[in-house]
Amino acid sequence: MSNDPNIIYGGDLDESFDYPTVGALLYDNFRDGGDKLSLIDANKNQQWTFTDLWEQSIKVAKALHGAGIRQNDVISVLSENRLEITAILYGTMFLNAIYAPANFFYTERELEHTYSITKPKFVFISSSAKELAPKLKQFNVKRVILLDDDNVDTENFISYKIFLNKFGSNNFDVDRFVRQPVKLFDQVAAIFMSSGTTGLPKGVELTHGNLVAYILCNLERVPSAKALFGTIKSLHVAPWFHVMGFVGHLLFTSSREFCDVFMSKFIPKLFLETIEKHKISIMFVPPSVIHFMCETPLRKNYDLTSLKCIFSSAAPLSKELEEQVKKLLNDEVYIFQAYGQTEASNVVNSSFGNANQGSIGIVNKATYAKIVDENGNSLGVRGVGEICFKGPFIMKGYRKNPEETANTIDNDGWLHTGDLGYYDEDHQFYIVDRIKELIKYKGYQVPPAELEGLLVSHPKIKDAGVIGIPDEIAGELPFAFVVKEGDLTEQEVKDFVEKSASNPKWLRGGVKFIDDIPRNITGKVLRREMKEYYKNMTAKL
Description:
Oligomer: single chain
Strand content: 15-25%
Largest sheet: 9 strands, mixed
Number of helices: 16
Distance between the termini: 53 Å
Mean pLDDT: 89
Radius of gyration: 23 Å
Number of domains: 3
CATH class of the largest domain: Alpha Beta
Helix content: 25-40%
Structural class: alpha/beta
């Protein structure tokens, strides 16, 4: 690393990367956890101990190996959060195969794009996505494992229980295999979809080294967390196909100090019941859930005093909402913001500890950060520019997409986030704006270019431009400017998108018909001009 005084370093990790694989780290933690509770499914009222988690993950690893899965084969999941998914995740990692979940709300079009990148060999699917099961064969999926059917065993489809029994009766030594070392920062462990700074979603390759670094960095905070909050019982509502839900789940199952309570589906009444029933002390949620807590009259019926800490992530948390939730619970509750990207294993900055209001905190351990201007020059205190990171959390790259990888990670290994920000005299970071065009709806990434491509496929739409408009609850809502040909209503445009795109991409912000979409000389949509037009348009209302 250079002697540039404007580069901020988070400090060394206390523990070295002395693990052959991420599977080895997790395998030993699960095995030694015994009968202590590890996981609770709040929706189904089911639970696993660490021994259950260890045994079930081994069963999956043996069955996958018996069915022909080997290192670097890709396993996908189309399912809501459930206990079995945890075993599938870790069973996959025990084999050094690659875990690549997909959003089970995806339309066939979106799933086709995702699977053209990840190319899964096996897919585990729940009844929530059952309508997609017959279509998986066209994506060259070799085997579909049905989580909710008990008696299916055909050439292409097999029940989960039959799969475990049929292929798991072998002598494959999982214990020995997980201890065979890999190149930590070369061997891919998981692939998550992200739109990066522009364009269609891309497959982010997270390595064994990325995940080991994430686990070690956060486990160092456990003693401080226990001192602050006592018994640590966490609650997660984010789906595990989203990197926010995935890394939180990974962390809270990797330590025997935690019990992770999760929800497969957000049900308002059950959410509040779960906090009271299980005496939740730490909660990981997007700002939209915090807003719900503050606004719902249901909260008066439940005791929420066990909550000691709320981690907010996936979208900015406003100062007003932070003050509102503190008033609702008590001033002693800790509200922390976390900042990250899929490309950086989710979290690279956290306000855990002392942080100024509105700050995303200091950079994580083992991580370097800098702010650069448009010419790539590093800036000092309170200089506003693009936030860049470097270190063991940064992805290997976009799967089979070297051009976009090179556009995101420069020759010196710095990840360019596309976000504008600065740091203060205490090296706390602040987000100012986004350079990139990505829309964030309740933490979900909505690529404007993808929606524009969909809109112009409509026979009566000549051109389209999509922007995100501010929304206090969701963060941003997709809004479309449309140049139409012939008779077309705003509702017809909305209906067209809802039939072809998953829920977060729906045009909740609205539709406005205009004569021309502003573009530069190369044809690129000028979103800043469209945002200014939208501001002027709404100001007149």
